[in-house]
Amino acid sequence: MSPSLKAQLQIHFCVLLWGFTPILGKAIAMPAIALVTWRMLLVAAILLLLPRVWRGLRALPPRFLRIYAGIGMIVSLHWFTFYAAIKLANASVAATCLAFAPVFLALIEPFIAQRRPDLRELVVALVAMPGVALVVGGLPRGMVAGFAVGVLSALLVAVFGSFNKRYVDQADSIVVTTIELGTGGLFLALIAPLFGGWSQLFEVPAPRDVALLFVLVLFCTLAPYTIYLLALRRLSAFAAQLAVNLEPLYAIILAALLFGEQRELGVSFYFGAAILLGSVLVHPWLAQRARQG
Hints:
78% of the residues lie in helices and 0% in strands. By secondary structure, the chain is mainly α.
């Protein structure tokens, strides 16, 4: 198996696990900031049990420690806005908003990576635009705020994905995961007073929420986040994000089966979501044509 194919399979396995993330986010009754803060801190605490992580931390130059800490803050804001979108709208809307990430990534990554813009990536961004209008048209008025927060979450995905791609080779992926999630969790705890106060971080959740939180931590965070960073070494941030864009498809299907969310959204929402997801297939097709040409 070629390294590139292995990386593609790793990314798609991550996407399968991430497809359950919005479902768990809706099922867990905790406030968004408390959910994300504990999600990040628990993952970091588990990783800090590994001697490999401590060796990597000691060997890491302070400059890269600061860089990964900064990326972790962006990651934390992405997750916070993502779960806030779930609470303000629903799992389908929040997940679909992630399909906007390639649009932002096509514009942001060339600047961060200091490379020329790729025309194929810009084409994919343009293909997604009609889907945007249809998605918005299919939203109930009460979900528009959740949609806007979800789009902000997608923008943050593009930002931290681009930075991760630039700096992922400078340290062990598990060490990077520990730094980013640990600092991200601490950052959210620090700013919690801006979103309802510190007290919500220490409210005792129901036993069911605790069990679902640990499922989220172990199977939808710890495993896929580390695998994703490994795969990113062999793929561009844009190619990886295109694969990640299949996550809304899993989430929408699961949300319809488990929560009946198809009754909350208009037909045009699903047409728009189909166009956004269809844009995922455009980039590989164009890339293949370019290689053949």
